[in-house]
Input
Amino acid sequence: MMLIACVFAAGACGGDTTEQADVQRVDVTKLDSGSYPTTPIDVEQTRTDQSGAVREAIRIGAATPLMSDIDNRYIYQNPGYRTRAITPKTPPSLKAVDRSEFDAVAPGLVAGWFTQGQRRKEFSVGSEVLVYVLRFSDASHASAAVKELIERVPGDSISIPGYPEARTRHNAHTEFGINYLSTGLAHGELALLVQINDPISRPFAPGPPADLTKRSFDKLIDMLRQYTPTPIDKVSALPLDMDGMLSRTVPLDDNNKSVDGSDRSGVYPAQALLHSEQDPNSARSAYTDAGVDYAAAVGALVLRAKDSAATTRLLAAISLPVATEYDKADSPANLPEAKCFKPKEGPGKSPMDEPVCYFAFDRYVAQVSSKNIQDLQQKTAAQYKLLAYGR
Output
């Protein structure tokens, strides 16, 4: 996604000599990359009217706790919620307020972040918590947004310990439906929204979810002290790349655009990236061990470790869950270093499951996925060429 000579110039930043030798023995001229670009791009040429908002959203995400940071029982995240960045053109779809009407109900949105956690891997057998951190143009817009977004939700108002100003809606179905507690709190120009959904508890007494909501606000406010809002007139000009990472990651194509067609590509600090992991605690251990600081996320995911030696452990850690559940697939021709896998055929296969390849290059570990093996092999080869370019 960016370009800095120290990162990509051969030998300029040290590194493990064995890894350097492995890199040199790959003849990139023999890699079939199909029609994918193989030279770094000028990321600024891809800037849109939402690019700055995405970057500001990522800055919020880097200061937002995981649900497991708030309550260590909520250790799972739904991998279906892959898109966490919120922008004015892609606002959240909330209970009682659809995305299409969000701006009319809560005008002034600048950027935001979404995170989610579950007690069980399958939602139907445990509760989940949805958290939104929404930045508005000023404190009055944030306060008005909380009022409108919560008061439209059916249910009774209850009290949240320590937060008498919070607005709430508690809904307990005794025979059918999903119990929930929706709560909003204005915190300066931020609107903090916490929704607890519980399909199991009967009765759904307000006490425990109110306590969890309190602890959520406590942790959110504490961690969000790390976030300094970018002046509104500077948001659109926020830099998109970092150290050349985005410019050296394969771009989006029609196969990996988000459902709403928006582009949330960017360079994500490790904390922001963890919000998209199904098992964030395991991922955090792997990131910490390898010293991962940033990841470029566009058409592929490229993580940066502290050094080339750490990529061996990182590669093993992030590929292990797939290796245990998928079948092995052929690596791209002339790139045996890439570990590739394909979903097992038969009952239980999800349409969301895609073949995937992993490889390490110097300080970087790439994760590349696609709809079919042939395209995956070409895309993986292109990603390798991008990281190797100029060496």
